[in-house]
Design goal:
By secondary structure, this protein is of the alpha+beta class. The chain contains four helices and four strands; from the N terminus they run H-H-E-H-E-E-E-H. Helix 1 crosses helix 4 and helix 2 packs parallel to helix 3.
Length: 207
C-alpha cells in the first residue's frame, strides 16, 4: 500500500516536471520565434536603410559626374574658342606684317608717330623702326611741329640706331627712357584685343 502511494507521488511529480519542461520549451520556442521575427524585421529595416542610402549616394555621385563632365566640356569649348580667336589674331598680325610699303603705309606710320609722340608727352623723342622702314622718307620735322603745337612742348624726333625685330611698325620713346609706346603689330593687336575679342566671338560662334 505504501509502495503504491510512493509510486503515485513519484509519477505525479514526474508528470508535473514534464509539464514544466514542456511549458518551458514552448516558452523558449515562442521567445526564440519572436526574437527571430524581431531580428528579421530589424535586418529588413537596416537593409532598406542601406539600400536607400546607397541610392542617395549613387544619385549624388551621378550628379557630381554630370556636373564635372559639363564643366570639362564647357572649359574645353572655351579653350577651343580662345584658340580660334588667337589664330585669327596671328593671321591678322601676319597680314599686317606683309603690308605694302606705299604712300598709304608711310601716312599710317607718320600718324602713329604723331599719336604716340603726343601720348609720350613730346620733348626729346626717338623712334625705333624696322631696317626696311628706316629708308622711308618720313616727315619727322612736320610731325615734331604738330606734336609741339598740340602739347605746347618743343619736340624733336630722331631715328634710333636700334631696329624692330618685325617687318614694320614703330616704337616711340622719350630719350630719357621714361616712356615707351610700342606700335609693333603684336602690341597694337594686344591693345585692341579687349574690343575685338567680343566682336570676333560673335562673328565666329554667333550669339
Amino acid at each position: 500500500m505504501l509502495d503504491l502511494l510512493v509510486n503515485r507521488i513519484i509519477e505525479d511529480a514526474r508528470i508535473k516536471a514534464q509539464r514544466i519542461v514542456d511549458e518551458a520549451e514552448r516558452e523558449a520556442e515562442a521567445l526564440l520565434k519572436a526574437r527571430r521575427e524581431e531580428a528579421v524585421e530589424v535586418a529588413g529595416k537596416e537593409a532598406s536603410s542601406m539600400l536607400m542610402k546607397a541610392r542617395v549616394e549613387a544619385a549624388n555621385l551621378r550628379r557630381r559626374i554630370l556636373v564635372d563632365a559639363r564643366m570639362r566640356a564647357k572649359w574645353k569649348e572655351i579653350v577651343e574658342k580662345n584658340r580660334l580667336i588667337e589664330d585669327v589674331f596671328r593671321e591678322a598680325s601676319k597680314r599686317m606684317s606683309e603690308m605694302p610699303r606705299d604712300d598709304r603705309y608711310t601716312k599710317f606710320l607718320e600718324d602713329r608717330i604723331y599719336e604716340y609722340g603726343v601720348l609720350a608727352g613730346g620733348g626729346e623723342l626717338e623712334i625705333v623702326l624696322s631696317d626696311r622702314d628706316k629708308g622711308l622718307k618720313l616727315d619727322l620735322g612736320g610731325i615734331s611741329e604738330r606734336i609741339s603745337a598740340t602739347l605746347g612742348v618743343p619736340t624733336v624726333i630722331r631715328i634710333s640706331e636700334d631696329s624692330l625685330s618685325g617687318k614694320w611698325g614703330v616704337i616711340v620713346r622719350r630719350i630719357d627712357g621714361s616712356v615707351e609706346i610700342d606700335g609693333s603689330p603684336e602690341a597694337i593687336l594686344e591693345r585692341l584685343k579687349p574690343r575685338l575679342q567680343p566682336m570676333l566671338a560673335k562673328i565666329l560662334f554667333g550669339g
